[in-house]
Amino acid sequence: MELTADFVRAALPVRDPLGHKGTFGKVYCLCGSVGFTGAPVFAGRAAMRMGSGLVYLGVPERGWSVVAAKCDEVMAFPLPDTGEGKLSLRAEEAIRAAAAPCDAVLMGCGLGRSAETDALTRRLLDLPQPLVLDADGINALAGHIDELQRRRGKVTVLTPHEGEFARIGDLTAGREASAAAFARANGVYLVLKGHRTVIATPDGRLAVNPTGNSGMAKGGSGDILSGMAVSLLGQGLEPFAACCTAVYLHGLAGDLAARDKTERSMLPTDLLERIPDAVREIERRYPRTI
User: Fold this and answer.
1) CA diameter of the chain
2) H helices, E strands: number in the chain
3) What is the DSSP string of 250-290?
4) DSSP state of 85
5) pLDDT tens track for 67-123
6) For 17, 60, 65, 128, which has the most beta carbons within 10 A of its beta carbon?
7) What burial class does residue 9 get, using C-beta atoms within 10 Å of its C-beta: 0-12 exposed, 13-18 middle, 19+ buried?
8) Angle, CA 101 vertex, CA 109 and CA 233 arms, to 5°
9) Is the Cα dihedral 159, 127, 232, 10 positive or negative?
């Protein structure tokens, strides 16, 4: 199916007027490394923009001060690193403790790669919460795709671009057929990013997104999408609805940013700042029908 504004409007969670910060979901984002300190900030802020009540960031100690200085609403905490600014296996206990009270987890944005970081990512696949894997969270599965079987029965969302997908899957059948086959075989929700992003589910549902533009093809845009997706999962949305809603609103925010800044000159920061406008447009122009 092709995603529509009506579908997204119906999927958006109702906001409890008597709710508190615990009502709207707690999410944990395991992201960032030295040289990639923007990724956790984008992901965390996007989760807040999408409505999360509490957002925690786990970042390598050597990059923590940079990330923390950029965060106001999002809470960043330092984790043991390898000495090169990437997460160490010694961080596992602290990550599990921090993630335990959360409703959804994101891993991978700007995480970087090392033998320890990849191994840590794979060890954490047994977390019980809905889990979003992006960027180096996906790359850590290259050559270890069988590890996804440990997630059977749990909600797992992968958000690769085509280059990342090629490391773990096969695109020869085309974007839609390849995404559908991968999602079924591995029991995951796959968001295959790019022009007309494809969302595929383990049970065979498939959607194609009409929003978005070439101005979004810049580093940081994917981190924002991942933050939006984990936020909606943390708020309790059914996974397919969460993925579709995040993708559609992400593209719509990009379209609104491009209208003001042009596709050539818009930045991921502009996209992030237009999420509220995208939500407002959906809520005002498309009344809830179900």
Assistant:
1) 54
2) 12, 9
3) HHHHHHHHHHHH-TTT--HHHHHHTHHHHHHHHHHHS----
4) S
5) 999 999 999 999 999 989 999 999 999 999 999 999 999 999 999 999 999 999 999
6) 60
7) buried
8) 55
9) positive
